């Protein structure tokens, strides 16, 4: 893929994927290592703001470099998750746009708790297994100064924004990965910022969302037809990966229905699901989390995982997959997403 300007910062690399359109790509080390981006057209627009203020400030610096010191007029959050919205404070003078469900969903995430987990670290004897798991995943972040910034505009319908000579479409596609998913589409440039609707290692949060997610991916493939896709995590891609993700979800749904029964537990069910075509994905053991959510949804139970139980289950799944597939599982290189 050919890029225009490339701006290298310590934490984020910004690739110009179309004239004035920059994808901000983080090294993909696991949970919360998210992407974002900005458009230097008209008043300017930022799509997502990373997990902490340090990453967001690098994007603000990059925006200023290409806009002669300007500030973006708009921020659009792809959904509520912390790794896509907790840098908003850096851009709080902008008009912040979110899905109408984002403020409700964000109540499941606690800034003070996450900050304390990071500060105690992954080896703290005072932490639970779930907290040590997250501390390891969150290494490299600092939540100093982070606070939730209320949106100026909450939307439930598709909207258009004019940025100079560029038309930007914001599509409500929820529920999919979450109940607050918004796509950012530039029809003339054929560039789609997809948030976590597209990403390697995808996890759903409801049975309804998973089923609708496939329809959303079909819409991207058959109707929107982007040439460049900026995913919520991982490398810049095209429709080939969108199709692969759709196949992953279809396979998951098919295998889940094939092996489910009213007595089976999540771990046993996850081990019966064939993911041999997706062993190159980051942390393929993450499958356990989505299966757990689907199983609980099917049984009418609260779908969110019990995080103190998850680390041991993931380690069990990792060992199981290693025993079953051996060297077919390749080590993941976090820096591969920066390849030009």
TrEMBL record:
The keyword Isomerase applies. SMART domains: Lactamase_B. Keywords: Isomerase. It is an enzyme of class 5 (isomerase). Its EC number is 5.3.3.-. It catalyses: 3',5'-cyclic CMP + H2O = CMP + H(+); 3',5'-cyclic UMP + H2O = UMP + H(+). Residues 33-233 form the Metallo-beta-lactamase domain. Gene3D superfamilies: Ribonuclease Z/Hydroxyacylglutathione hydrolase-like (3.60.15.10). InterPro entries: Metallo-B-lactamas, NDM-1-like, RibonucZ/Hydroxyglut_hydro. Pfam families: Lactamase_B. The keyword Isomerase applies. One of its GO terms (molecular function) is isomerase activity. Counteracts the endogenous Pycsar antiviral defense system. Phosphodiesterase that enables metal-dependent hydrolysis of host cyclic nucleotide Pycsar defense signals such as cCMP and cUMP. This is Beta-lactamase-like protein. The gene is M1-763.
């Amino acid at each position: 893929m050919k890029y225009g300007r490339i701006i290298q910062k310590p934490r984020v690399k910004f690739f110009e994927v179309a004239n004035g359109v920059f994808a901000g790509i983080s090294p993909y080390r696991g949970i919360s290592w998210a992407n974002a981006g900005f458009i230097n057209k008209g008043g300017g627009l930022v799509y997502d703001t990373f997990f902490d203020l340090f990453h967001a400030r690098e994007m603000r610096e990059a925006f200023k470099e290409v806009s002669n010191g300007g500030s973006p007029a708009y921020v659009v959050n792809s959904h509520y998750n912390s790794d896509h919205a907790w840098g908003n404070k850096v851009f709080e003078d902008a008009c912040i746009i979110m899905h109408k469900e984002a403020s409700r969903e964000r109540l499941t995430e606690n800034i003070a708790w996450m900050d304390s987990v990071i500060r105690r670290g992954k080896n703290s004897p005072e932490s639970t297994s779930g907290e040590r798991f997250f501390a390891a995943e969150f290494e490299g972040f600092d939540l100093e100064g982070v606070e939730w910034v209320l949106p100026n505009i909450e939307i439930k319908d598709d909207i258009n924004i004019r940025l100079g000579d560029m038309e930007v479409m914001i599509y409500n596609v929820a529920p999919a990965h979450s109940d607050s998913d918004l796509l950012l589409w530039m029809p003339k440039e054929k560039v789609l910022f997809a948030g976590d609707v597209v990403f390697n290692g995808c996890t759903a949060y409801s049975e309804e969302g998973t089923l609708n997610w496939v329809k959303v991916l079909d819409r991207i493939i058959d109707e929107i037809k982007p040439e460049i896709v900026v995913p919520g995590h991982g490398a810049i891609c095209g429709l080939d990966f969108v199709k692969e993700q759709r196949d992953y979800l279809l396979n998951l749904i098919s295998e889940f229905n094939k092996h489910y029964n009213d007595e089976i537990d999540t771990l046993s069910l996850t081990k019966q699901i064939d993911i041999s075509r997706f062993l190159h994905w980051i942390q393929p053991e993450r499958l356990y989390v989505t299966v757990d959510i689907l199983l609980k949804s099917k049984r009418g139970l609260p779908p969110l995982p019990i995080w103190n139980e998850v680390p041991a289950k993931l380690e069990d799944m990792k060992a199981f997959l290693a025993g079953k597939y051996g060297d077919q599982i390749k080590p993941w290189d976090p820096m591969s997403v920066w390849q030009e």
